[in-house]
Amino acid sequence: MIVLPTSKSAATTIEPRVLLLYGAPKVGKTTVLSQLPDCLTIDVEGGSGYVESLRVVCKNPAELAEVASLLRKEPNKYKFIAIDTVSLIEDWAEVIATDNYKKSATGKNFTGATVLTLPNGGGYLWLRLAFQELLGQFSGTCSRIIFVGHLRDKLLEKNGKEVSAKDLDLTGKIKAIICAQADTIGYLYRQGKDLHISFRTFEDVLCGTRSTYLVGQDFVFDWKKIYPETLK
Description:
28% of the residues lie in helices and 25% in strands. The protein is α/β, with parallel strands linked by helices.
């Protein structure tokens, strides 16, 4: 039976359950994943071979599904699971979405190379469904999920001038979906030889967090600062 509260409840979630990291290619995203204890990196781009890491390489959606199935049989086998990268997962989703559309009653006569060429943006719904299906396989597999994505520079108008903004390299609503799922979004960048992570929310940088100790923070990358309780 549900009882309506009469007072505030204490916070029960402190650390990020879903962490989204993004940055420029080769900035060091895969390297920092290799440094996180008991983190299984699911590498879909084939870049993890350059570092010593706890990893499994998936070359296609079928292999990704096989890994997800194994993880569902042993939930929380690892403290962390990282998917590197969701940017390539979207590419896979586009292929799957196109195939699904061609198999549907409305798309049986479609001969285009990609569903994204459908008029009025009609193919983007199919893309979102395929993307959610690919990532949804990992629901319940681990209490700490990390999504890794690439950086995309885009131009915004600010005070009558165009400025470069740091954004996640995903399509419109897919980006909105994954950002909504994430408790914390961190932007990785280099300052000299040091890799930094920023959680500062700006108009021209996609960042943010629900973890109060990370709000407004920008520091040299350190997993213990991101997961202080889990890694203490």
